[in-house]
Amino acid sequence: MGRQTPLFKLHQELGARIVDFGGWDMPVQYSSQIGEHHAVRRAAGVFDVSHMCVVELRGARVRVLLQRLLANDVAKLRTPGKALYGCMLNERGGVIDDTIVYYLSDSWFRAVVNAGTRDKDLAWIRRHASAFGVEVTERTDLAMLAIQGPEGRAKAAQLLAAADADAALALPTFVGREIGGWFVARTGYTGEDGFEIMMPAADAVPAWRQLNSFGVASCGLGARDTLRLEAGMNLYGNDMDEGTQPFESGLGWTVAMEPRERAFIGREALEPIARDGSPRKLVGLVLTDRGVLRSHQRVVIPGGGEGEITSGTFSPTLERSIAFARVPAGTGAAVQVEVRGKLLNVRVVKPPFVRFGQSLIGSSKGPS
Amino acid sequence: MSTVPADLKYTRSHEWVRTLADGTVAVGITDHAQHALGDLVFVEVPEAGRAVKAGEPCAVVESVKAASDVYAPLAGEVTAGNPKLKEKPETLNTDPYGEGWLMRLKPAPGALTGAALLSAADYQKVLEAEGG
Question: How close B101 gets to chain A, by Cα (Å)?
Answer without folding.
Answer: 19
